[in-house]
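We modelled the chain as a single entity of 498 amino acids. Its sequence is:
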Amino acid sequence: MKILISLITLIFGSILFFGPLLAEEEYGHTEFQASGSQEGHQLFLKGLLQLHNFEYEDARETFLEVQGIDPQFIMAYWGEALTYEHPLWSQFDTEASRSALAKLRPTPEQRVATAPTEREKAYLRSVNILFGEGSQEEREIAYSSALEEIYRQYPDDIDAAALHALSLLTISHGGRDFSLYMKAGAITEEILDRNPRHPGALHYSIHSFDDPVHAPLGLRAADAYAVVAPSAVHALHMGSHIYFALGMWEKGSERNARSFEEAMARRSGQDDPIPRQGYHALTWLIYSLTQEGKRGEAREKLAIIEDQVERFGSSQHRQNFISARASYVIDTQELSGHFAQVEVDYEGLAPFFVATDQYVRGIVALHRADMEAALQALADIGGEETVQSRERRAITPRLLRMSLQAQIEMIEGNTDQALVLLEGAAELEDGLSPDYGPAIPVQPSAELLADTYLALGDPELAARNYERALAGFVGRERSLLGLSKAQAGQGFAQLQTH
């Protein structure tokens, strides 16, 4: 009988424990106290881990499942509301978040009153603020303060700390505010000292440090994140933020290839479009393969996106194709190849993508000696207006217009005017927040300026500007090759003087 009881205990114990263990194996580890049934709580933890990994759709399904099992599980409504908020992607569905909370109770006061603990009341107050009245920026700042207060009151609640770190990254509007980013990074490091498998801490640490100066601080998280959360598509990709910032192209390619494969594995059939996060990884993969000199592999991956555009044609498909194609064509200078000729429908696309594609069209037109088409592309870029922003995407149309106009001026023999435009673009870009990932703009202004000085026979100024470009885009192949040519030219000039 004792053996039978032990066996039953072992079997049922395994069953009860298998759920959270599996979630932790897939998405990381956290401990979050919440009121409700044990079954609901185990699922809630899975949803929370998915939320930290930015697996928003999966997290939403999990939180809805919790609500179905235990309608009184208060924090499941909190979690669902947050799945509609994608702050680092600038994607918000505030009405959907409000509707999720309204399922719990119609008013903010009633929702808070339903929470059985003071801590859960505080969490509900925080999302009431985030999805309440006022501008997006005002609500985000107030929400960040509310999360900080929760962590102060409950210092063992590392999820509050992690969410506060994310909120600091969110409120860095208009560019990368290093004081906020470093504060967020410090919080994540404290969490990781307590729980090295916390996916939010790993995730937000990478975001805090993914610029060329601070990237070494994010290497621990970059190396660990994919191991901790191997089933999260975004987690598999995230390490490449640090690897790209450091010019570690091979590791960046490996992570994005894994992320893309995981995204593809989730499709129910061959006729399904590639999941959005899979596209993101694929675009980055094309860039790193190009930087590695693996042009054939990059072309194969680019053909996948082209096929998806032809079959599905959504704005997301077209935007990803524009970004990936632009990087490939400009960096390889395959200006007569297939991908240089493909046209894309701009309907529903943001100015950033239109400008990027028109720039490529302009460069291809100049290569064909079609000045009329180049001038039309220049006119279609836009970007003449003054842009009061330090965000690269906002200012990119202006930068690309200046760069294309400069190359037109060079062909027409107006060298001085071309250099004025390129110096202005490089100076403007120097004032922007540091970048990560594939180059934005698609051809860094300092690199193009260096190319121009090299063509004009001034290797010293060319070398200086290639180094300037490499400070912002570490390990970029075109800048490195240009720098080597410029340095060789400097050496030859010195030999001639002796």
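As a brief sanity check on the tokenised model: The chain has a mean pLDDT of 91. The chain has four domains: 1-209, 230-347, 350-442, 444-498.
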